[in-house]
Structures are given as structure tokens and as C-alpha cells.
Protein: Glyoxylase, beta-lactamase superfamily II
Organism: Nonomuraea jiangxiensis
Amino acid sequence: MKSKRRPYAEQRPQDLGGGVWSVPVPIPGNPLGYTLVYALESPRGPVLVDAGWNHPDAWEALSGGLAALGLDVTAVSGVVVTHFHPDHAGLAGQVRDVSGAWIAMHENDAALVRLMTAYAAGEHDRFQADMLRRAGADPAEAGRSMGERPTPPAAPDRELRDGDLVDLPGRKLRAVHTPGHTPGHICLHLEDADRLFTGDHVLPDITPHVGIYPFDRDDVDPLGDFLESLTRVGELGPLAALPAHEWIFPDVAARAAQIRHHHEEKLDRLLALLAERPDPPTIWEVAAMMTWNRPWDALSPVLRSMAAGEAAAHLRTLEARGRIRRLSGVDPVRFQALDS
């Protein structure tokens, strides 16, 4: 099936009706191309859902796109961020600077922003190097796979919890906690219009990255959380989905079910691969065994690191379900299938 995805150059700001607008904001150098920022009408000034990447071209697109729709970025009253990633939260601080708007995000992601702000560059490098070593990457590859320390987004003024209503007078915009892609990811249910702003949680053609960091943590289960969140979103019914990437689509429940099925099949394939292995593999070896959108040898070092994070999340879910175990006292960590 041919993808409906269009390049950023073909995107335009749109009036979606019912006091909702969308503005495509470019992500320089990223294959996703752009973030769809949404504006919602409010008597105090528009409220934005996400803000886009912190880059001059992105700022020009956001402010100019709002102007093309008859909206003024200096009149924005609030920015509610679906999650802390830079293509969503990056420009929130600049919007606040020019408008005095509040910034809101879920309390779990707000805690991560505080942690990132306090984390020195040297600590970040040591953290990554040790994480990659414990996953089984050889030292040379570990050095190449270390990504740059991300710049923390602006700290929020308001923290949301599941079920909270966003400050949007005259409308009902409710936060739905959907952890997985990040611990504090939220979807936003516009209850008076049967619309769901899905952020990265439910996208029409691709699935979001769900990783675990550090790779060998055994006290969290982000993929398990993600699958539960998909079930919860599905229970909201066939709402119109307004995602942060790609395109708007109907029936978020149907797409959520497809994504759950995709991951369950991936878990089944991984369990079969582990059962066939004569020796328990490392996380890095598991990542190399799995199927990605390109062959393992064609992945860049940084993409291999992301793949390892996703492999680790799938391993952790299988472990939480009692289908595999991690060997004790082994460094790097290794996993073994259990008899069913």
C-alpha cells in the first residue's frame, strides 16, 4: 500500500474546523520531516498542542503558519506538550518568551526534564558508555554509538496527571496518560468534539520508538506500559485521531489494535529466536537478530543503539511475562528462553 506521507514542502497550515488548526513545523535533518502542531481556540488566546523543534526555520514555520491562519504567536495562552522530546517541546520555551504562555506536561516527563537539566555532559557520556558495554557492544562500536547529549526543553509551569483537564475555557481537553514512548507521554481527548490528539502514541503508518534506558533495567516495563496504553486508548472508541506526525486519520481504536498486534507478533518472533539459540545472547546480539526497516549492517551506529534500546524493551516484556529469564551474575547481561 502506498504511503500517504507527503514531504514537508507539500504541507500547509490548515483550518480543521471546530476551533482547531494545524501547522506543520519542520524537523531539520530528520526523516520524519515535520511535527504537526495544533492550535485550539480559546477566549484567552490559542492553546497549542506541542510546539516543534527548536530551530530558526521551525520558529519561522510555526509563527508564520499561525499568522496565515489569522492567529498570533504572541497571543498564545498555553502550550500543552504531549511529551518532552525535542520535536514536540523544543519551541515551547520560545513561545512562552514572546507570549507569556504557560507550558504544561505530564509530571513524569517533567521529572525527566529536571533530571536532564541537572545532568552534566561528562556524566551523560559515562552513562551511555557503561550502558552500551553492559548490553554487549564492543568498545569500538560503543564509542561510535554514543549520541549527543540532548538539550533539555524548557521546564513546564504546570504538571498534569491522568484525567486532568487542560486550561482551555469553554472546551473539555482531558489528559490521557499513555506511557511507553516516554514515561509521561499523554494523549489529549477533546471530549466535546470526539477528537484525540495522539502525539506519538498512535501514528497512522509507523510505530513510535519504545526503548528502555539503561538497557538492562529490570524495574520498569515500557513496552508493557505502551501496550496497556494502546488498549486504554482503544476503549475511548473510534475517535478522529490528530497525530503529531504523518496525517490525520479516523478511528484511533482500530489503529491502536493494529499496533498492539504488530508488537505481539514481534514478541512471538523474538521468543522463537531465543528458543533456537544454543547460548543465551546479549542485548546487542538480540538487536542484531531482530528485523528492522534496514539490515543491521546498514544501520548507523546511533540507530543501532536505538535498536538495542527497543530490543531491550521487548526482552523486558517477555521477562515480565515469565517467558524468558536474565542470567544472574553475568556481565554483559544475557537472556534465555524458558520452557513453555
Remarks:
- The radius of gyration is 20 Å.
- Residues 13 and 69 are 7 Å apart (CA to CA).
